[in-house]
Amino acid sequence: MSTFIRDYIEREKINRRNFLLASAAGLTATAVPGLFGQGQARAALTDPAIAWSFRDKASAYWNAIYGGGEAFVESIGKPKEFLVALINEGSSEKSLADIKAFLAKNNGNCAIACDANDSPNARPVVEAVQQAGAYISTIWNKTDDLHPWDFGDNYVSHMTWSDEKPAEETARILFDAMGGKGGVVHVGGIPANNPAIERLQGLKNALADYPDITLLDAQPADWDTTKGAELMASFLTRYGDEIKGVHCANDNMAYGVLEALKAEGITDMPVVAYDGNPEAVQLIMDGQLLATVFTNPHWGGGITAALAYNAAIGKFKPSEEPHEHREFYGPTVMVTAKDAADFKAKYLDATPTYDWNDYWGPSNGPIQYK
């Protein structure tokens, strides 16, 4: 196996250590009170500052998200450094504090793209942006009762991915590789994350058609490689040979799972993942992963920034758009051994060129609530 997994784990440890040291020293961003606006969208902002608020740069997925944002910024004639990275390191408290500080620093003259880290954090983030008179587009995490159209133009849009069906498809690929019988474990994301919930539900949906497959356990590893390795090691201690397959809610955790399996001398355990990161695609080509699901983070990162910025400068008025343009699904592509090489050539070895004014072209329709 490539050494990139071990290197990846070490980078995560260093990033976490640096964040904790900064927090202890009081260096994390805090809001400056009294500088916000009156909670009304301005007719149009002039040269607004742009930020992307996301989890970390150790992940290929989030690097691709941010890279899409940089591509959009360059498309409007600005250097990519104009895009500010607000990295929350998996902390919802830091996510909110950093956004409030960014709003205060720029007196609300802002356009923000954001993953709120967990669903409950989305509302205070959006409320802070509206109060400042700024604009925000979000991805992945929000509660079902939070809608952009309830915030006028300030909350421009929300995009998520319909993870349940793709996760069900990866589960079926996994179960077939297991011969339709045996025990499976699920390595999950942050419990309050919408994608973590949907990806586990997709696994459970597939189980209904495989009566000889038993779900032995499903526990969170918080999207983290190191935690994924630790959880898999604990699963092996508890269940041993009963485990015949592993369903991972993202690629990063799958890397840790593979390391834990390798440490026990297990090299033939079928494992599926999610996100379509370059390393995961290579592992599929090398025969170490069965499948992953690509959500086109480059496009998602760029179009989310484009929506927030172009609404802020008055290029379009969100409140005049239909609901399906304000809450919508992003695209997904299943990647397996039979198509991994073609996928890599199209999406990873080269970056497709996107029209950042085509806000909804590759999207997959309005969000459906159950």
TrEMBL record:
Keyword Signal on entry: yes
Subcellular location: Cell envelope
CDD domains in the record: PBP1_ABC_sugar_binding-like
Domain of life: Bacteria
Keyword Kinase attached: no
Cross-referenced Pfam families: Peripla_BP_4
Broad class of the protein's primary localization: other
Keywords: Signal
Domain Periplasmic binding protein: 50-315
Family in the record: Belongs to the bacterial solute-binding protein 2 family.
Protein name stated in the entry: Sugar ABC transporter substrate-binding protein
Organism of derivation: Paracoccus pacificus
